[in-house]
């Protein structure tokens, strides 16, 4: 039994190491949401700052939808463990509004990268009395 102990330990470490590996999430690329909007992140620097474009599939205006620029930042902390939090701003080129998104990138059990986000949109209003209806 004493001789088997080192073998079992090596076997455990070999089999268990796969389960301990950190699943990494990479924001660079093209992302599509449930409504058909798509975001493309083209560049990211060593600090986690990134840029790209957003093409929304939905709008509250009657204006023609156009691709709009986005800028954001990925949290670069040792505690992220490969599934980072991030935020970005989209400056809509076809309306008087801007949207901020915040979220986290996950890797699911099948290895698929998934972004979970929340957003806040601010539209321009004529005066401070209408401030209540400017944010969605």
TrEMBL record:
> Which domain of life does the protein's organism represent?
Eukaryota
Does the keyword field hold Metal-binding? no
Q: Which UniProt keywords apply?
A: Biotin, Disulfide bond, Glycoprotein, Secreted, Signal
Any one GO MF term held by the record is: biotin binding
Naming one, the record's GO cellular component terms include: extracellular region
Q: Which residues form the signal peptide?
A: 1-19
> Got any disulfides in this one, which pairs?
25-105
Matching InterPro entries: Avidin, Avidin-like_sf, Avidin/str, Avidin/Streptavidin-rel
Gene3D superfamilies to which the protein is assigned, alphabetical:
Avidin-like
Q: Where in the cell is it found?
A: Secreted
Protein family (similarity comment):
Belongs to the avidin/streptavidin family.
Self-association or partners: how does it assemble? Homotetramer.
Q: What does this protein do?
A: Forms a strong non-covalent specific complex with biotin.
Could you tell me what this protein is called? Answer: Avidin
């Amino acid at each position: 039994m004493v001789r088997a102990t080192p073998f079992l330990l090596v076997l455990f470490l070999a089999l268990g190491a796969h389960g301990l590996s950190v699943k990494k999430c990479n924001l660079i690329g093209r992302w599509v949401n449930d409504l058909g909007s798509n975001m493309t992140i083209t560049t990211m620097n060593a600090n986690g700052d990134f840029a790209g474009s957003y093409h929304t599939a939905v709008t509250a205006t009657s204006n023609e939808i156009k691709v709009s620029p986005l800028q954001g930042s990925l949290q670069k902390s040792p505690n992220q463990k490969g599934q980072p939090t991030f935020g970005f701003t989209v400056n809509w080129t076809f309306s008087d509004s801007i949207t901020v998104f915040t979220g986290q990138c996950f890797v699911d059990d099948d290895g698929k990268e998934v972004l979970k986000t929340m957003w806040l949109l601010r539209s321009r209003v004529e005066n401070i009395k209408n401030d209540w209806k400017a944010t969605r």
